[in-house]
Amino acid sequence: MAGGDDVTPAGGDAKTGGPRRLSHNELEMARQYSETSARIDNAMEKKKAGKKPTAAEATADLKKEMEMWEHKVSVEELESKLKTSVANGLTVADHKERLERDGPNMLSPPKVKPWWYKLLMQFVNFFAILLEVAAVMSFIGYGLDRSAPDNLYLGVVLTIVVVVTALFTFFQEFKSEKTMEKFANFLPPKSVVRRGGSSSQVDAASLVVGDVIEVKLGDKIPADIRLVENAKLKVDNSSLTGESEPQKRTVECTDDNPLETKNVAFFGTLAVDGTAVGVVVNTGDRTVFGRIAGLAAGSDATATTLQLEIHRFVIIISAVAIALGLIFLIVGFVKGTEAISNLIFVIGIIVANVPEGLLATVTVSLTLTAKRMAKKNVLVKKLECVETLGSTTTICSDKTGTLTQNRMTIVHAVTDMTIHTTKTATQEATFDFDSPTFKNLFMLACVCAKAKFDSTDMAENPDKSIDDRQVNGDASEAGILKFAEKLSSVMPIREKNAQVATIPFNSANKFMVTINKDSTRSDGGLRVCMKGAPERVLDRCSTIMMEGESRPMSDADKATINERLQTLMEGGERVLGFAQMSLDATEYPAGFEFDTENPNFPLEGLTFVGLLALLDPPRESVPSSIKTCQSAGVQVIMVTGDHPATAKSIAKQVNIIHDPTAEDVAKERGVAVSDVDPTTVKAIVVPGSQIRDLDESDWDRVLGHEQIVFARTSPQQKLIIVENCQRLAKIVAVTDDGVNDSPALKKANIGVAMGIAGSDVSKEAADMILLDDNFSSIVSGIEEGRLIFDNLKKSIAYTLSSNIPEISPFLAFILTGIPQPLTTVLILCIDLGTDMLPAISLAYEKAESDIMLRDPRNAAVDRLVTRRLISFSYLQIGITQAAAGFMVYLIVFQDYGIASSLLPGLDTERYYAARDEAERRWLYTSLERPLGESTDRQWFDRTADSDLSPFFDGAQGVIDQQTAEVFGDLLPGADANNRPTNAEFNNMIKIINSLTGRVPCRAYECDSADGTSVLTNQPACFSQAGPVFLTGINTQAINPEAGQCFELWSREQQSRVLRRAQTAFFISIIEVQWADVLICKTRYLSLFQQGFFSNLVLNLGLLEETLLGALLVYVPFINDPFGTEPLNVAHWLPALPFVVIIFTYDEVRKFLLRQGKTKGNKFGLWLYDNTYW
Q: What are 79-86's contacts with CB under 8 Å, separation 24+?
């Protein structure tokens, strides 16, 4: 709150008396109004001080300040300058001319971005653009070569990914409420105007500057008007300022600031009492409301730290993807790779680099965190702000209602010169209720008051505790009422001692007086009861009550009372004095007419009864919460409108101050404050009166203290405090609840409003709302903010680690010519399928135990993605995962007969499992035995093997001339005896035998030279004329006679083996990601400390990625679209040792870095500095 602890309940609707909820555009107007008023005040102060505004300030002033002169001049001068008459108004001709010149009295509708624009923006972030380019390239590739439908499938999948991600993010971020609502409801349809010498009712839209209008109770002010006649007019300015309490208007100028003067009534406000006559000075968009509406509509949102971090991450990853894509595009062209193949590789590189599911993961994480914070009574209005709170280094907290209970409570009572305690959450009562003096004090507390419990609340909630009941009355009276009610029911006492007359409290007298019936008297006499500032009450007392009896008050008595008063006030308590006098029943009989304006009854010579001291006590959880903040490296600064003594007292109680201030040290040493060395003082209390005189060096000195309290501050000074904290590179969170606090809330890195005591304007300006007004909820918010940053780091570390095993297959293919170990489609299956739920599940991970023991992250150094995180994900875990993938890939080829040594260069010509008919070839390999390990391989192709050329040039001995080399022309065929029928195929078998000197590993036969018999698996078949029939190619029968032999590989066999190897590589990534997601559960603690299976969603994620992988492998109709093949169970096993290696490595690394942090181990410290991500 801007002021002290006086809490006046929000005003209500003029008709119903209930609270009126401000609409969205009213709240936005109020926020801008408050900021504009603050700017004008600041500019006027500078002008008075002779300070020139900076160029930027001058420009802003031209745009934003409300330049008005009409409120400063006399009525006569106003009439002269506006050429109008208060008595007669404008002439009809003047009105017509001005209406044509200025236009109608209407507000222009604000411009808002349409929903389709917001949706379109989802398609132009870097990730989306990269995937869109990749999709277009895929479609181009398919258009150039329709024999490869995979390009079409890939293009469709990438398009779906982009569209689904964009729609998901759009619907998560889209807010149904409009930026500004229609303003038509602010314009009353009719107004009474004096025009041409007569009064008439006209359309409000026809009003012009100079029109004279009449305003009465219930009217909505149709334009900005300068009041020239006034009969107790009060206006409800809540639509503009947010202040629901009716504001008195006058004819005289009360402030140079046009927004603060009381002789102006503004467009859109409501007359709730009295009547007035005013001259129109502004209409339509030129009204204060219209100008502020324009500013509100044009205001830009500031990017949060998380938005900046994510944008930076997207730029980095996109740059890496584009750079790698271009590099390998160039390498491909240099190597002579055809354009379409090169294009597909570039697409693969881009897709492998881009974590397609990251943005969806971030959105889900933020939404989840917001829901989690709502359970902790923190309402998040802007999701990304959660992380900003986690980065907070300084909290500028209001006192009332945030650090304290916002509940004035009687904590001490003084009777018979003795200070007694009352029962509170932290102390027991020491007063004696049966004491005669205390009974009199209790009686005065009950009857000298006007506060009452809200009857509606009592009827609806009869069982509500006394402390929680709603009270109609100010905060101090509410505290007294609740204190008295706990001792004895107040209303029956008031009924027996009814008020006859009352002098309300006012700032001049500083006391309240009631004349009450006295139920203790049998003669029906009355009693004068007085309550107010102790010094004012004492001045009117001549006697004092001691043990129930009155005696003359001595100077010593007054000195003792003042000592007690000083003791209470030093504790920050608000003290009220109570006195009474019994009136003579004969002089003041029943029915006597008391004059409260000119009192006709005694107000001097009263009997002093005692004191009651009130305090807004700290919330029980706040001291420990502030200690938690301090241990987390977060400085808590109290910024309050209260008296410095009160602020300091509360600050000590809640641990904001726990060391002496310079004043304390000076008092203790008996020296002047100026003699205390400021560098030795850790705590400081700065009153608002000193703030305006502080220069930059002074601010550096003040904010250099560890423990800081600002007291008696204005809303403008709160803004200055925030700005200076930010100048020192602090991340500032501001908590406040007042109408005029929106400038500070908006300026802060994160504004936090109070949900209960906060004004609607402060809630609208804030990024977060504390639903229970409890500072401890901010601590929960800080922890959640740090947790979300931690968990996003973990999710990114997990997601990025699979980039290396996704990218390296493309690199290996391009650099070594091995058959491509992983396809682009399977990469998408990882990024959008198997990795998605585990990545999201890390958002559900609970905080590590040290999260609130760390200093706030340095936004300039501790980024979302750092060098250490890249090193961890790519060089430590990623490379290990890639090694697992290549291991399994090689094992599969080995198990199917192609040794690892034969893979380099195997696909250089793009023959292996080629899709293009013209590029398909037979592959033959040399083995030491059937089904054994191959030692050599070659393509049946003249270009690939120049030794084949002679066989295509002519017959070579018993081998006929060969004319076919393309796989499709060499299909074996089969007769009734399973003999191949294709002569070119049969001739190829003899050619391969001639080149390798080996017989087939499969069964073969031929007719004997005399044609009388069949030779089976006889080498003689190759030395005689005539064909050799490789029957094993059709029956799969093995040649049992073979030693060293050769094996033929059809295009289908090549494809099956490659798809199995690619499938095994894909499954290996899933397996090593098991270990990866587990080690990413913590950044510092051991997994044994955090718990292996403490995260249920993560457990489900592990199960989901495993089942999805198995589904893609073993469901037949899924195999072809995704390019997978069923795996032998044995091929799931080779990656498991790498799972153990990853887990063991990371546990050892974390153990050593913990040793470094806790025990100073040098290697551990080095590890912490270089691997703690």
A: 79/279, 82/209, 82/210, 82/279, 82/281, 83/210, 84/210, 84/211, 84/212, 84/279, 85/212, 86/194, 86/212, 86/228, 86/229, 86/277, 86/279
DSSP 956: B
- Tell me the C-alpha distance between 1126 and 229, whole Å: 93
Count of domains for the chain = 6
134-189 pLDDT, tens digit per residue, is 788 888 877 877 766 777 877 888 888 788 878 877 775 564 333 233 333 444 46
Select from 741, 759, 760 the least CA-distant residue to 751. Answer: 741
Instruction: Tell me what the mean pLDDT of segment 597-619 comes to.
Output: 91
Indicate the helix (H) or strand (E) that contains 378. Answer: strand 378-380
Q: Are 326 and 450 within one domain?
A: no
Distance CA 427, CA 418 (A): 17
Q: Are 239 and 268 in contact (CB under 8 A)?
A: yes
Tens-place pLDDT, residues 448-506: 998 888 887 888 888 888 988 888 777 788 899 999 999 999 999 999 999 999 988 77
Question: DSSP label at 86?
Answer: T
Judgement on whether residues 161 and 209 belong to the same structural domain of the protein:
no
Instruction: Please give the positions annotated as active site.
Output: 398
Integer angstrom CA distances of residue 1128 from 261, 1104, 1114, 1132: 86, 21, 10, 8
- What is the token pair recorded at 511? 């006391």
d(Cα 900, Cα 887) in Å, to the nearest integer?
10
Q: Cα–Cα distance between 261 and 1020 in angstroms, integer?
A: 118
Q: What is the dihedral of CA 669, 674, 676, 677, to 10 degrees?
A: -170
What is the per-residue pLDDT for 193? 92
What secondary structure letter does DSSP report for 820? P
SS3 1045: strand
Tell me the range of 228-242, 412-426, 461-475, 1055-1069 where mean pLDDT is highest.
1055-1069
Nearest by Cα to 447 from 553, 386, 519 = 519
Question: Do 498 and 555 have their domain in common?
Answer: yes
* Residue 543: CATH number of its domain: 3.40.1110.10
What are the beta bridge partners of residue 117? Answer: none
Closest CA to 856 of 578, 1135, 634: 634
What CA–CA distance (Å, rounded) separates 977 from 546? 130
What pTM does this model have? 0.70
| Cβ–Cβ < 8 Å for 92, 202 | no
CB distance 799 to 358 below 8 Å? yes
pLDDT at 64: 41
Structural domain of 1112: 785-900+1055-1171
DSSP three-state, residue 982: coil
What is the DSSP-derived secondary structure letter of residue 578? Answer: E
SS3 695: coil
Tens-digit pLDDT profile for residues 58-104: 334 333 445 678 888 999 999 999 999 998 999 999 999 999 998 89
Q: Which of 748, 773, 798 is the last residue of a domain?
A: 773
Helix%, strand%, coil% for the chain, nearest 5: 50, 15, 35
Tokens of 702: 């003040």
**Quick one: 429 and 471 in the same domain?**
yes
Dist CA 990 CA 967 (whole Å): 17
Please say if the pLDDT value at position 912 is more than 80: yes
Domain identity same for 605 and 629: no
Per-residue pLDDT tens digits for 178-204: 323 333 344 446 888 998 888 888 888
C-alpha span between 348 and 157 (Å, rounded): 13
In a domain, 558, yes or no: yes
Pair (823, 744) in one structural domain: no
What is the three-class DSSP state of 234? strand
φ and ψ of 987, to 5 deg: -65, -35
With residue 194 as reference, give the H or E element that holds it.
strand 190-195
**∠ Cα 1130 1131 1134 (to 5°):** 95
Q: Same structural domain for residues 165 and 223? A: no
